[in-house]
Amino acid sequence: MSEIVPQNGNVLLTWEDLWVTASSLKDGNKAILKGLTGYARPGELLAIMGPSGCGKSTLLDTIAGRLGSSTRQSGDILINGRKQTLAYGTSAYVTQEDTLMATLTVKEAVYYSAELQLPNSMPKSEKKQIADMTMKEMGLQDAMETRIGGWIGKGISGGQKRRVSICLEILTRRKLLFLDEPTSGLDSAASYYVMKTIASQCQGRTIIASIHQPSTEVFSLFHSLCLLSCGRTVYFGPASAAID
């Protein structure tokens, strides 16, 4: 693996000989990830793919530093070539399940999040400006006044909810973004729009997404692919070369 030195505070994330073992009363110790090596580069969108149960979400959680207490890991995770933990505010993680307040409008949800996440020293007018710009980047400008909806009644679509969740996580312009199956539960059109919007955020960011059975159109948006099977890497390289 050639060494790449990122500039301008960007994040090159590398994992080497990564093993993860889970322990349970029923199964004892079981290896979930088995000696994985790979990297995610600034300005690129990396897909983690493979069949159900192959370790996609476990790999994502491991490199994001979100493993549970019942698991053990070995191997190295490097930030810009060094062993170190991610500094606070460097990364954001979008979960598979949306955790949005159904009673809020899109604008209210994003404004409230901006108020909480952005520095206290920042004027409210600047926070609103950042929130408005981020909603526009996510293609949410036409849904700003619509309630998110859910148990209270119909609201925005599933694809729009996913984009709101992403919007809340990129308000602070974090350099490293993790997404756990961002197209789960969406139809093909909504999946493509969500992933195209995510791909548009690659400039200056390192983006890693676990994804299950993407369409050809969605897959074409990824720069790199990490393909897993039974906890092992069976392909790592350019996404376009995996089709050939």
From TrEMBL:
SMART domains registered for this protein in UniProt: AAA
Key words, A-Z: ATP-binding, Nucleotide-binding, Transport
Domain of life: Eukaryota
Domain ABC transporter: 13-243
Pfam families linked: ABC_tran
Gene Ontology MF term list: ATP binding; ATP hydrolysis activity
Record-stated family: Belongs to the ABC transporter superfamily. ABCG family. Eye pigment precursor importer (TC 3.A.1.204) subfamily.
Protein name: ABC transporter domain-containing protein
